[in-house]
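Tutorial sheet, problem 5. The four components below are modelled jointly, 488 residues in total.
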Amino acid sequence: MAKKDETDDVSLWERLERPAAAPRASLSAGRIADVAIGIADREGFAAVTMRKVAAELGVAPMAAYRHVNGKDELWALMIDRVSGELAPGDGISGWRETLRAYALRTREMMLRHPWLAHMPAPLFALTPTRMAAAERQLASLDGLGLDVDTMMAAFRAVNAYVHGATQSEAALRQYMEEQGWQSADETRRGLAPQMSYLMETGRYPTYRRYTRGAARKDDAAWQFETGLDCVLDGVAGLVERGRA
Amino acid sequence: MAKKDETDDVSLWERLERPAAAPRASLSAGRIADVAIGIADREGFAAVTMRKVAAELGVAPMAAYRHVNGKDELWALMIDRVSGELAPGDGISGWRETLRAYALRTREMMLRHPWLAHMPAPLFALTPTRMAAAERQLASLDGLGLDVDTMMAAFRAVNAYVHGATQSEAALRQYMEEQGWQSADETRRGLAPQMSYLMETGRYPTYRRYTRGAARKDDAAWQFETGLDCVLDGVAGLVERGRA
DNA sequence: GCGTGGTGTGTACGGCGTATACCGATCGGT
DNA sequence: ACCGATCGGTATACGCCGTACACACCACGC
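Model answer (structure tokens):
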């Protein structure tokens, strides 16, 4: 009965909040997730293997399955753990400041853990730590005269932008690391063989003008914040119209 | 010499544009990619296997490797093929109409092919068909008084939003399909065990209010377009300031 | 007629996720 | 103080995966 069936039936998160349940265990879902996060940070998403996690814990490959139902659940745990880095400090007030702070911290988190870009997206919604972040952002939009649908749409718009923008930035960084490229120039040199064929077709004149003449081409933070402020300006419009 | 080394050295895209190179082959990179896309559409991202693709082509597992360097290259091909569905029809004019049309079509494309959400992001940048879409969107922002950096930032902002928003929508749909849930109500019922524990903690009052009282909770198109118009409003601000 | 090179095949290797059966230690009830 | 139940970790095994490598075939230019 007890634990095995519990692992099947009860929500992962409910199980997690009963630390007293297993005092004589050397493993725990938290330790497993931490080791997995370490591997992912150091060696990339694909290197996270049930067997490698177990090895790093000095334990047989199957041992982890007593605490985690499978790889999917491990992923959910990794996301939840790492999302603890999201909560911004005190002293922020107002919806714009709140959403902006979360956006910046989300970007930092995803750049610190580039493997997040590979995670199946639905997992992102349902972990408790992520829900807490969502709650705080939603609450900052409360009381401005918006209906709940519009509040949620605004929240989602900002977060969709942040995820989309940071995913491509993180994935590029990770790709650079895999290839051993250290700088933007080195990357351009590495990508040149692929790129030059495309550019020489003459089909992409505007794009070409950008690669030649842009001043902020390598300033990822500027690009991110410029886009972010666009989205926040749009939300501000929504808020004004809602207030009226 | 010839083909094997060529497969290693020359860009995939350059190879593709020489159809005359191999007249007596029964396979081709295009056919392989099409079959792979079919499998991904029907059975999901994880079901795309070199072996399964080969089987569907009635060919030995290793045969595909004569035309495609490995699974990564197959992915790039799949993305490029499917991106042909992006180009919007005629009769659109102005940056806002152009960006909006691409956004809507990108969403439709990603919902038609939910496996796109699982693709490593850098591949998205460098395929010829995607570059063509980028070029057309960038060109629509040209001549408005924006510098190239700002043009690119605006383009990226819209596309980041579109990808982020549609990824989570597509991933949710795919998850529903995996679970056999057909409707929004069925999904809520299926998610309830996970959800109710979280909600009953009382930590997410605003979120709870949304799940109870929202009118457009299941209108994904409305949510997408509301967010999209936010972002476009933000870009409009950028354009106005650039014009001044 | 014959080498040559492009195309598909067969075999094999190492790694993966995980089902299943197992074993010793520990605990609750008596 | 005992004893079954249960829990944490183990050992073994299966069927899949991507792909390296050596080989067989066939069409062609000479």
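Marking note: The two ends of chain B are 59 Å apart (CA to CA). Full credit if you identified this.
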